[in-house]
Amino acid sequence: MRTITLINGDGIGPEISKSVVEIIAASGLEINWDLQTAGADVADKEGTPLPERVLESVKRNKIALKAPVTTPIGKGFRSVNVQLRKSLDLYANLRPCKNLPNVKTRFDNVDIVVVRENTEDLYAGIERQIDEDSAESIKIITRNASERICRFAFDYAVKNGRKEVCCVTKANIMKLSDGLFLDTYRNVANDYPQIKQREILVDNLCMQLVQNPTQFDVLVLPNLYGDIVSDLCAGLIGGLGVAQGANIGKEYAVFEPVHGSAPDIKGQNKANPTALLLSAIEMLRYIDEKGYAQKIENALFKTLTDGIFTADLGGSASTTEFTKAVIERL
Ligand code: NAI
Hints:
Layout: E1 2-7, H1 13-26, E2 31-36, H2 40-46, H3 52-61, E3 63-66, H4 80-87, E4 92-98, E5 111-117, E6 127-131, E7 134-137, H5 143-159, E8 164-169, H6 177-189, E9 196-201, H7 202-211, E10 218-221, H8 223-236, E11 246-248, E12 253-255, H9 274-286, H10 290-305, H11 319-328
Parallel strand pairs: 1-2, 1-3, 3-12, 5-10, 8-9, 8-10
Antiparallel strand pairs: 4-5, 4-11, 6-7, 11-12
Helix pairs in contact: 1-9, 1-11, 5-6, 7-8, 9-10, 10-11
Bound molecules: 1,4-dihydronicotinamide adenine dinucleotide.
1,4-dihydronicotinamide adenine dinucleotide binds at residues 12, 68-71, 81, 240-241, 256, 259-265, 271-272, 275, 312.
């Protein structure tokens, strides 16, 4: 039986993790979940929100499914998510955004894959207070990290039959940092003549995405733009409750939804488990359990087609009712 690390997170994390674990079990696939807690409660007990045991578990099992973990704004500990991605060198953040059956959105046929660099940029966490009234954050862009993320995007495009990889920057203003990312993209693109190249500035991209999103295929972006644009793309397909993601490195992969811990609906049995479930389905494909992945995806799509929705999609099903509905359709 395969052992997989489960980081069940906080906020709505435990509720949606329970749902996904139940659905996978009901599909007939046996997984030995190595449950690892992380976050603020853990920091109170163990002195750090991301204890070594969590990293060791992912290193041992190579694969993890992760629910969201809260990061306090402005003060407190450094983001568990950023730390995890850095410590395990999960350099590629892959966020496919595709319309789901029967989920009404402004546009049909959205099928965008956001490939976000995951280890540097303004997320390197290098900040300092200059004086009481000023602070600075340093934006780090390296050729090495830019090259491997661009290569990841092009390799993904080739493997998945995509036609175009569009590079998103603000290289007209940040000529050195974003300029380096763009220059690296151009060099990597030369190795993939079968894939169309395109370059766009991030502000224009945002406008185009809300007016005509179907023109985009694969997007590759530095960390901060990738973070923001992937939430925008989540909005195009029904919101954060349905937006899946994965953090992939050479040795390890951590599958997690785009959304956060949603403290506003915590403990209310309202959260939509779809984003975590879709992330888990991609995880099953990644570990070559394609049959089970398809079976679960079919049951999820049938649930949506039958008009069973949680509140974020305008329905009235609770997390547990939605979970039960998916299980009944397996
Ligand atoms: P959020 O994604 O938690 O919530 C934004 C809005 O979307 C809220 O109204 C929430 O109720 C709704 N929402 C999110 N997921 C949902 C779901 N599955 N079903 C139904 N509604 C859902 O973003 P927010 O409020 O900015 O962040 C909350 C906390 O989560 C912060 O501490 C943040 O740092 C953390 N966070 C963690 C992430 C992770 O663990 N990977 C990613 C993003 C944020």
